[in-house]
TrEMBL record:
InterPro entries: DNA_primase_core_N_sf, DNA_primase_DnaG, DNA_primase_Znf_CHC2, DnaG_bac, DNAG_N, DnaG_primase, TOPRIM_DnaG_bac, TOPRIM_dom. The gene is dnaG. It comes from the Bacteria. Keywords: DNA replication, DNA-binding, DNA-directed RNA polymerase, Magnesium, Metal-binding, Nucleotidyltransferase, Primosome, Transcription, Transferase, Zinc, Zinc-finger. This is DNA primase.
C-alpha cells in the first residue's frame, strides 16, 4: 500500500509546479524562473517568482513561499489532506487510504520502536550503561527518575539492533523507516543510527513509542541531541515531549508549561510540576499551538534568559497571540535553566516563580521596543516603532493591531493618534512589490544588511550544495550576526546529522516558522549552476567575508565601550584591523566570487 511519503515525492517529481500555478496565475519566463502577479496580495508589478529547477515559489512582496503542496493549501485555503486530494485529482496519481496492509505496516513501526526501547532500557541497566547511569546521577537524576521516564542507553558500535533486536527483513525495513537504523551508502549492512547516547522515548497521545531523542554524555563536538527523522507515525512539528504523561494535568489546570529541554521537563516533574512539555528540538510551530489548544487555555513559556531563550520566547508568544491562545512568559536569569532551578528550589518556590509570569502582550512589546521608553531619543523611538509595525503585519484583526499600537504608544510616550496615523500611513517604510530597497529619507533599509546577506548566502549554498556540509565544524564555531541564519543553521545541522533530505523544496515545505522561510527563499532563487569545486571556493570566500563583518561589529562595540582603558581599546582595535586586512588580502588574491 502506498505511503504518504511516496505520494508526496511522486507529486513533486512528476507535477511541474509552474504548470499547476499557471492555471491560476499568468506566468512569464524570466531566466530560469517564471514571474507573475502574486495571488496572495494585490500588486501592480510582478514580484511572484516560480523556480523551475528547484520547484518552489517565493513572493518578494508578501514573502509567501513554499512547494506545490503549500501553494494548494494557501491558494485554496484547505488543509494538507485536502491539498493531497486536489493534487491527486489534478495529476491522476492515486492516494490510497489506509487499508489492512498499511494498518499492519503502521503497527509494525510501533512494534520496532517498542522493541528498541526495551533494548535501550536493558542496556541502561547493563554494565555497558554504567557511564550513562553515572552521568545522569551526577546531574541529579537517580534510578527512580530514570525508570519513571524510561531513559535508556544506546551503546557504542554500529551493529547492535539488527543482530540482537530485529529478527526479520520486515522489521529491519520498518526500523529503517523510523530511523533506528540507516542504510549504508557503501553497500554494507544497515547500521545503528543512535550510538553512545542516552535515549529519551517520545510517546504519542495513546502512549505508543513514535520516536526517540538521543543525548550525548556530557560535552562534545557532536550535536547534543539528535532526533528520529520524520515518519508516517512521527511529525516533530506537531509533537511535544511528555504530552502523553502531562495531558491529564494540563486538562485539569487548563495551563501548559513549555520548556526547551527534556531534562528541564524531568527536573520540574520531579518537583511536582506535572503540566510541563517541551518541543522536539525545533522552534514552536503553528501546529504545536493548535494542538495544544485542544488541552489548554493558557501557555506559560519558561525559558532560559540568554539571547536564544528570549528569541524563542518572543517567537512562541507571537504564535500564541496570533492563534488566540492566552500566553504568559517567565524569563530566567542568564545562565540558568529550569533544570538548574529544579535542583535548588522546592515546589512552592517554583510555583511562585511560575506565578510571576508576565502577559505575552507586555513581554512582546517590551522586546520589540528594545526597552525604549518616553525618555529615549527620537531616532530610537522610530526604530522601536518600526519593529512593532513589522510584527503587526502578521495580524489579521484591526482590534489586535490597535491593542498593540496602544501599548507601544504608552511605553514610548507618544499619542495613540500619532502612532495610528503613522502606522496606517506606512510608517514602517515597507517597500512596494518590486521596489529596490533603497533607503528613503527618515527611513531604514528594508532589505537584509550586508552581513545578513552574506550569512544567508552561506546557508542557501548549503541547502543547494549538500557536500558543503564537510565544512560543518567551521560553521558550528561561527559567530552569526543574523539570528535567522543562526536558527537556519541549527535546523539544517539537525537534518544533516539525522540524514534527512536537505533541498530548497524540503526546507520551504518544512515545519519551520514562516519568518525563516521568508529570510532564505530569495537566496535559494539565485543561479546554482556551479561545480562542487567552485561552490567550495565561493563558500570559503563567504566565510572570510563573514569574519570581516564580525570584526567590524567587534570594533563598533569597542568604540561604544566607555569603560575600557584607552590603551587597551587601541590595542584591541589594532588587532581587529590587522585581522581584517589579512582577510581582505586573501579575498583579493583569490578573486571575489561573491556577486
Amino acid at each position: 500500500m502506498q505511503f504518504q511519503r511516496e505520494f508526496i515525492d511522486r507529486v513533486r517529481r512528476e507535477v511541474p509546479i509552474e504548470s499547476y500555478i499557471s492555471r491560476f496565475v499568468p506566468l512569464q519566463k524570466r531566466g530560469k524562473n517564471m514571474v507573475g502577479l502574486c495571488p496572495f496580495h494585490q500588486e501592480k508589478s510582478p514580484s511572484f517568482n516560480v523556480s523551475l529547477d528547484k520547484q518552489f515559489y517565493h513572493c518578494f512582496g508578501c514573502k509567501a513561499s513554499g512547494d506545490i503542496f503549500q501553494f494548494v493549501m494557501s491558494y485554496e485555503r484547505v488543509d494538507f489532506q485536502r491539498a493531497k486530494e486536489i493534487l491527486s485529482e489534478y495529476s491522476g496519481i492515486p492516494i490510497q487510504e489506509k487499508g489492512r496492509e498499511e494498518q499492519e505496516r503502521t503497527e509494525l513501526l510501533y512494534k520496532v520502536n517498542r522493541k528498541a526501547l526495551q533494548f535501550y532500557l536493558d542496556m541502561m541497566r547493563s554494565p555497558q550503561g554504567i557511564p550513562a547511569r553515572e552521568y545522569l546521577g551526577s546531574r541529579g537524576l537517580g534510578e527512580e527518575l530514570q525508570k519513571s521516564f524510561q531513559l535508556g542507553f544506546a551503546p557504542a558500535g554500529f551493529q547492535n539492533l539488527i543482530p540482537k533486536v530485529f529478527s526479520s527483513k520486515e522489521e529491519i525495513k520498518a526500523a529503517i523507516e523510523v530511523g533506528l537504523v540507516r542504510e549504508s551508502e557503501k553497500g554494507r549492512e544497515p547500521y545503528d543510527f543512535f550510538r553512545e547516547r542516552i535515549m529519551f522515548p517520545v510517546l504519542d497521545l495513546s502512549g505508543r513509542v513514535i520516536a526517540f531523542s538521543g543525548r550525548i554524555l556530557g560535552p562534545g563536538k557532536e550535536a547534543k541531541y539528535v532526533n528520529s527523522p520524520a515518519s508516517s507515525i512521527f511529525d516533530k512539528g506537531r509533537t511535544f515531549y511528555h504530552l502523553y504523561q502531562a495531558k491529564e494535568s494540563i486538562q485539569k489546570s487548563r495551563t501548559a508549561v513549555l520548556v526547551e529541554g527534556y531534562l528541564d521537563v524531568i527536573g520540574l516533574v520531579s518537583k511536582g510540576i506535572d503540566n510541563v512539555v517541551a518541543s522536539m528540538g525545533t522552534a514552536v510551530t503553528e501546529n504545536h499551538i493548535r494542538n495544544m489548544k485542544k488541552f489548554a487555555d493558557r501557555f506559560l513559556l519558561l525559558l532560559d534568559g540568554d539571547s536564544a531563550g528570549r528569541k524563542g520566547a518572543l517567537h512562541g508568544a507571537e504564535l500564541c497571540l496570533k492563534e488566540g491562545l492566552e500566553c504568559s512568559v517567565v524569563m530566567l536569569p542568564e545562565g540558568k535553566d529550569p533544570f538548574d532551578l529544579s535542583k535548588t528550589l522546592g515546589r512552592q518556590e517554583l510555583q511562585k516563580l511560575l506565578e510571576s509570569a508576565v502577559p505575552a502582550s507586555s513581554f512582546v512589546v517590551d522586546e520589540l521596543l528594545e526597552k525604549t521608553d518616553s525618555r529615549a531619543l527620537p531616532e530610537k523611538k522610530r526604530k522601536a516603532l518600526d519593529n512593532l509595525y513589522q510584527f503587526l503585519r502578521g495580524f489579521n484583526r484591526d482590534s489586535d493591531r490597535e491593542f498593540f499600537l496602544g501599548l507601544g504608544a504608552r511605553q514610548l510616550g507618544i499619542s495613540m493618534d500619532a502612532v495610528l496615523r503613522d502606522y496606517k500611513g506606512g510608517g514602517a517604510k515597507f517597500p512596494p512589490a518590486g521596489s529596490d530597497n533603497k533607503v528613503k529619507p527618515g527611513g531604514r533599509k528594508s532589505g537584509p544588511t550586508a552581513a545578513e546577506t552574506c550569512e544567508r548566502k552561506l546557508i542557501a549554498l548549503l541547502i543547494r550544495m549538500n557536500p558543503l556540509f564537510s565544512f560543518s565544524e567551521e560553521i558550528s564555531s561561527m559567530e552569526f550576526l543574523d539570528p535567522k541564519s543562526a536558527f537556519l543553521w541549527d535546523f539544517l545541522y539537525t537534518r544533516y546529522v539525522s540524514e534527512e533530505e536537505i533541498s530548497p523544496a524540503s526546507v520551504l515545505s518544512s515545519e519551520i516558522p514562516g519568518e525563516f522561510k521568508e529570510a532564505i527563499a530569495p537566496f535559494l532563487l539565485e543561479d546554482s549552476e556551479m561545480s562542487r569545486e567552485d561552490a567550495a571556493k565561493v563558500f570559503g570566500l563567504l566565510t572570510k567575508q563573514q569574519k570581516i563583518f564580525v570584526n567590524d561589529e567587534r570594533m563598533k562595540e569597542l568604540d561604544r565601550d566607555s569603560t575600557l582603558d584607552q590603551l587597551e581599546k587601541l590595542t584591541r582595535l589594532a588587532y581587529y584591523r590587522t585581522e581584517k586586512e589579512k582577510l581582505l588580502a586573501h579575498i583579493r588574491d583569490a578573486g571575489s566570487a561573491l556577486g
